[in-house]
Amino acid sequence: MDDSTTHTAGHAAAGTGDHPPRNPRPGPATTNRTTANRTTTKLPTPSGPTPVDAAIEVSGVTKRFRDTTALAGVDLRVEHGEVVGLLGPNGAGKSTLVAALVGLRRPDAGTIRVLGLDPARDRQALRGRVGVQLQGAVFHDALTVRELLVLHIAFHDAPYPLDELLDLVDLTAKAGTRVERLSGGQHQRLALAIALAGRPGVLVLDELSTGLDPGARARIRTRIERIRDDGTTILLVSHDVEEVERLCDRIVLLDDGRVIADASPTALVDACRAEHPGVTTLDGAFLALTGTAPAPDTDPEDE
Ligand SMILES: Nc1ncnc2c1ncn2[C@@H]1O[C@H](COP(=O)(O)OP(=O)(O)OP(=O)(O)O)[C@@H](O)[C@H]1O
User: Fold this and answer.
1) How many angstroms separate the alpha carbon of residue 94 from the centre of ligand 1?
2) Ligand 1 site residues, Cβ closer than 6 angstroms
3) What is the pLDDT of residue 130?
4) Strand (E) positions, 125-219?
5) Residue 210 to residues 46, 206, 216, 218, 239, Cα–Cα distance (Å)
6) Which keywords accompany this UniProt record (predicted)?
7) Count of other CB atoms within 10 angstroms of residue 8
8) Confidence class of residue 107 from pLDDT cuts 50, 70 and 90?
9) pTM for this one?
10) Ligand 1 centroid to 92 CA: how many Å?
11) Distance between alpha carbon 301 and the CA centroid of its chain, in Å?
C-alpha cells in the first residue's frame, strides 16, 4: 500500500467543525446477539436522539472474499468527538471494515459515510480530514524521517509544525535517520506521525501500540489522550483490551463480521455479568462474548 492511500493530506484543524468537544452518547438500550453455537446476550448499546450527521456512519455493510464473509451487515455510528474502540478476535473483520472506512475497499452492499462523504468515491475530499494509521504501512525507505514528514506536512493546510510532530511521537532523536533503519516500533510511531500530520478531525488507528515497548506505549497513549481531549474523533482498532478501556468512551465488539456488542466498557462488563456471573473485567467479557475463553484446565486425575 502506498503512502498516499495509507495516510492523508489536507487540513481540519481544531475548530474547523470536524471535531467539537467530546460528546459520548449515554443511555442503555439493547442489542440481541444470536449465533448457532453461543448463547444470546443482551447488551446495552448507546441510545437517545441521534444527530443528523455523525463523524462515521456505517449501515448494513457486507463484504465477501470468495467463500468468506468478512462483514455481514455491519452498522456503526461514531459521533463527532467520540472515541470508539473496535475489538474482535482474529478474523472478525476489523481490518476489512477499516479498509472500507478509509476507501481502500468497496463494500458489496451497505453504505459508509465519513464526515458525510463516501470514502471510496470521495477520497480526495477526505484527504487531510481523516488521518489513518494502518498496520504494515510502507513508506519511502530512502528518505529520512524528517524528509518524509516534511513531505506529508506539505499536503496539509493546518499541519503540526515538524518539531511538534516529531515530539508528539517521540521521534525527535531519529529525525535524521533513514526510514529503512528504523526499528519496528519507531516505524509504527512514524506511521502515527503521518496520520496526525494534518490535525485530522477523524483518526483511524489500527493497532496503535503493537510492537511498542512498555515505555513507548505509555507515552503514545498519553499523547493520544491529549489528542482525544482536543475533540478528535477516534476509531481505535485493537487487540489490547486495556488500551481500549483506557482510551475509549465506547466499545464495538465485532465477531464473525457482525457487531455483537456496542456499549461503554463499564456497561459492557455489567451486562455481560448478568449472563456470565464470573465476568468482572473487560477482558473476561471479551472472552465470554466471543466464545474465545480457553477451556478450563483439566486435572488428569479427574479423567
Ligand atoms: N484479501 C482477502 N482475501 C480473502 N479473504 C480475506 C481477505 N482479507 C480478509 N479476508 C478474510 O476475511 C475475514 C476477516 O479478515 P480481517 O482481516 O478483516 O479480520 P481482522 O478482524 O482484522 O483479523 P486480525 O485481528 O487477525 O487482524 C477473515 O476470515 C480473513 O481470512
Assistant:
1) 8
2) 65, 68, 70, 88, 90-96
3) 93
4) 130-133, 202-206
5) 29, 9, 10, 12, 9
6) Antibiotic resistance, ATP-binding, Nucleotide-binding, Transport
7) 29
8) very high
9) 0.81
10) 7
11) 46
- How far apart, in Å, are the Cα atoms of 139 and each of 156, 170, 181, 248? 18, 18, 12, 29
Tell how far the Cα of 299 is from the centroid of ligand 1, in angstroms.
36
Residue pair 254/86 in contact (Cβ under 8 Å)? The answer is yes
Task: Give residue 188's identity as a one-letter amino acid code.
Answer: Q
Residues 164, 175 contacting (CB under 8 angstroms): no
Residues 230-259: what's their mean pLDDT? 92
Query: Measured over all CA atoms, what is the biggest interatomic distance in the chain, rounded to whole angstroms?
Result: 69
Domains of the chain listed by start with CATH number: 3-18+82-92+123-291 (3.40.50.300)
16-45 burial: b if 16+ Cβ within 10 Å, else e: eebbeebeebeeeeebebeeeeeeebebbb
Separation of 303 CA from ligand 1 center, angstroms? Answer: 38
Q: Residue 266: helix, strand or coil by DSSP?
A: helix
Cell of 111: 453504505
Q: Are 110 and 62 within 8 A, CB to CB? A: yes
Number of CB atoms found within 10 A of residue 111's CB: 11
Dihedral pair phi/psi, residue 18, rounded to 5°? -75, -30
